[in-house]
Amino acid sequence: MGNYNIFSLILKASQKLNILLLRAIKIAIVSCFGITILLCLCQVIFRYLLRFPLFWAEEIMRLFFVWVIYIGISLCFYEKSHIVVSFVYERFPSKVKAGLQIFIYVLNILFLLLMVLLGFKIIWFVGGQILPATGVPVYLLYLSYPVAGLMALIFIVGSLIDRKKKECS
């Protein structure tokens, strides 16, 4: 009975963490994408109508666009909306499908751990470099790799916990 209570607490904590993280991700994606669109619009107006290009806008747009893409990757892990080859998967018997699903989870976890570790290695490598037009540190661009990887890992662990809950029910 004690194991069930611990599992129940872990499940509730995981669900709350997933909900909070999901809200933060959606706000970040909308904000970053909105800023990117506004900067692009301002850049066009300033360059072609006012003949005064915003020299820093491209770097900032690139920074926000990279963050939108990588945060979007973690959102796709939550929604399980990544591309899959379902016609191959559907041909397997259900026992094989269960094992294959666990294998896919393990591969995803290994890939994301690698993404996080190599992301931090890239951040270390770029060190004190700055973007030339804005002076923004280059590591802010590459910080999106490990952050998105960690968020996706949290969602995968949450999926595994949900899967275990369904098996126990």
Topology summary:
Blueprint: H1 2-49, H2 57-79, H3 86-89, H4 94-126, H5 139-142, H6 144-168
Helix pairs in contact: 1-2, 1-6, 2-6, 4-6
Structure, explained:
With 169 residues, the protein is mostly helical. The protein has one domain. The protein contains six helices and no strands. The two termini are 14 Å apart. The mean pLDDT is 88.
Task: Please name the defining characteristics of this protein.
mainly alpha; 81% helix; 169 residues
Largest β sheet strand count, sense and barrel closure? none
- Kindly provide the radius of gyration, computed on alpha-carbon positions and rounded to a whole number of angstroms: 21 Å
Using DSSP, what is the number of strands?
0
Taking pLDDT < 50 over at least 5 consecutive residues as the criterion, the unreliable ranges are none
Q: How would you spell out the order of helices and strands?
A: HHHHHH
Count of separate DSSP helical elements:
6
Structural class: mainly alpha
Separation of termini? 14 Å
Principal-axis shape equals elongated
Question: What's the mean pLDDT score?
Answer: 88
Helix content: over 70%
